[in-house]
Specification:
Elements lengths: L2 E9 L6 H10 L5 E7 L5 E4 L21 H12 L1 H11 L4 E6 L5 H14 L15 H10 L5 E4 L5 H15 L4 E8 L3 H9 L23 E8 L5 E10 L12 H14 L8 E3 L6 H15 L4 E3 L2 H4 L6 H12 L26 E2 L12 E8 L3 E9 L3
Helix pairs in contact: 2-5, 6-11
Length: 398
C-alpha cells in the first residue's frame, strides 16, 4: 500500500518557508554559524545550527503550563504552515482517526535548565515552570491539544533516529488501519544539556562540520522541526520503504562493520521493491564524526558502489538530533517536487579533502543536477545505542 507525504512543514536553520530553505540549500549557503555564547572546552565559540532570528515563533498560551516550551513553539511554528491541511484531515476523517507520531530528544529540557539555575540562585523555581515540560511526550500532547485530535499520539526518543522511526511508526498505523492520517516528524531545540553532553564525548566541532573529510572532527548541534501529513491519498512523493535495526554493539559508537545499518537499508529497499541501482540520491547520516563516517561510507560503497550521488546535509542545518531524520526527509521531499525540474541535488559542503581510509563516494557539488527530478531517494539515520533507520522516498505519477 502506498503511503503519501501530502504536505510538509519545516523550520530549520535554513529558514521557515519552502522557498527560503530550498534556495539556500541548492545555492550551498549553510545555516550553521559560530555562537559566541557557547564555547568548547578550549573556550572556542561553537558552530551551531540555530533557528534564524527572523523566524518568529508563535504564542503557546493556549497550552497548559506543562506543555509550554520553546521546543513546542518550534513545533507549533511548523504546524502553522500546514494547519489548513491538518484541520481538513480531521474534518474529513474524524478527530479519532488522525494520529500524531513524533521524535524528540530534548523536549523542554531548556526550560528545566533555566529553572534549576534560578532555583540554585534564589531557592525558588520560575513562575510558570512545570516539571512536565521536560516530558518526552510533551510535543505530541501539545499538537493534540492544539488540533483537538483524539487519535493515537506518541513520541519516539531514540536519539538521532527518533523522527525517522516516528515516520516508520506512522506508516505502520496507516497500514494497520488504526487511522487515516498521521502528522509525523520531529522537533528538537538547542539546550546546554545536549551541547555539554556531546562536548564531553569530544564529538563537537568548533567549525562547520566536515563530513567524509580527513579533517573531520565532530558534529554541529542543530535545532528545528519538520512535520509531514501522511495519508493514503495520492500525492507527488510517497514513503515507499523503511527499514529499522539495532546494532546492540556499543552505547555511543556504531558497529564499525555497519551490519545494522546495512540491514536497515536493505529492508527499506525491499519494502520499496527497489534495487540499489534505482536510487538516484542518498542523503547520508554524515555526522562528520570519525566512526560514523567510516562505517557509513563502507556500507554505502558495498551496497551502491561509487556512482550514486551522496551528500550529508548536516553542514547546512547542524545535527538536530531527534528532529534530524524528519528535517533531512523534508529536504529530500523538496528536491522531489515538480518545481525542481532540472533535478538539483542537496550539495555536500566540505573541504574536498577526502579521507584516503574511506571508500570513494560520489559527493554532490553545489549546482549539480540529475537532469530530471529525483525518482527514488534514500535517507539514513544512525543513532546512539545502535538504533538505525533508513527511509526511501519515491516520486509518484511522473
Amino acid at each position: 500500500m502506498s503511503l503519501y507525504l501530502n504536505a510538509l512543514a519545516m523550520i530549520c536553520p535554513l529558514g521557515d518557508t519552502h522557498d527560503a530553505i530550498r534556495t539556500r540549500l541548492f545555492a550551498g549557503h549553510s545555516g550553521v554559524l559560530a555562537d559566541a555564547t557557547r564555547t568548547d572546552a578550549q573556550g572556542q565559540p561553537l558552530s551551531l545550527g540555530a533557528i534564524p532570528d527572523q523566524c518568529a515563533l508563535p504564542d503557546d498560551s493556549h497550552l497548559p503550563p506543562r506543555e509550554r516550551s520553546r521546543n513546542n513553539r518550534l513545533l507549533l511554528a511548523a504546524l502553522a504552515q500546514i494547519r489548513d491541511q491538518a484541520d481538513a484531515a480531521i474534518a474529513r476523517y474524524g478527530a479519532h482517526r488522525v494520529a500524531i507520531v513524533l521524535g524528540t530528544s530534548t523536549s523542554g529540557i531548556a526550560e528545566g535548565e533555566q529553572a534549576v539555575r534560578q532555583h540554585s540562585a534564589s531557592g525558588s523555581f520560575p513562575a510558570g515552570y512545570h516539571y512536565g515540560q521536560q516530558e518526552l511526550g510533551s510535543p505530541a500532547a501539545a499538537l493534540r491539544l492544539t488540533l483537538g485530535s483524539s487519535g493515537p499520539a506518541h513520541v519516539h526518543s531514540t536519539a538521532c533516529a527518533s523522527s525517522g522511526k516516528a515516520m516508520a511508526s506512522a506508516a505502520r498505523l496507516l497500514n494497520m488501519g488504526v487511522c487515516d492520517a498521521v502528522l509525523c516528524g520531529g522537533v528538537d531545540s538547542l539546550c546546554d544539556f545536549t551541547i555539554a553532553g556531546f562536548s564531553a564525548l569530544e564529538s563537537v566541532s568548533a567549525q562547520r562540520c566536515n563530513p567524509l573529510s580527513r579533517h573531520r572532527h565532530g558534529i554541529n548541534i542543530g535545532e528545528g522541526a519538520a512535520l509531514f501529513l501522511m495519508t493514503r491519498e495520492p500525492a507527488r512523493v510517497a514513503l515507499s520503504g523503511w527499514g529499522e535495526s539495532s546494532d546492540a554493539h556499543h552505547v555511543s559508537a556504531p558497529d564499525p562493520e555497519g551490519q545494522g545499518a546495512r540491514r536497515a537499508i536493505l529492508q527499506a529497499l525491499a519494502r520499496a521493491g527497489l534495487a540499489p541501482g534505482q536510487i538516484d540520491y542518498i542523503n547520508l547520516h554524515g555526522t562528520a564524526t570519525l566512526q560514523n563516517d567510516a562505517m557509513e561510507a563502507k556500507v554505502i560503497a558495498a551496497l551502491f558502489g561509487h556512482q550514486v550521488p551522496v551528500s550529508s546535509t548536516k553542514p547546512f542545518t547542524g545535527h538536530a538530533l531527534g528532529a534530524a531524520s524528519a528535517i533531512e526527509a523534508g529536504l529530500c521531499w523538496l528536491a522531489m517536487q515538480d518545481d525542481n525540474a532540472t533535478g538539483l541535488l542537496p550539495p555536500h559542503l566540505w573541504d574536498v579533502a577526502a579521507d584516503a581510509a574511506l571508500p570513494v563516494l560520489d559527493t554532490v557539488a553545489a549546482g549539480r543536477a540529475l537532469g530530471h527530478v529525483p525518482r527514488h531517494v534514500l535517507s539514513n539515520s544512525f543513532a546512539f545505542g545502535g538504533s538505525n533507520v533508513a527511509l526511501v522516498f519515491s516520486r509518484m505519477g511522473a
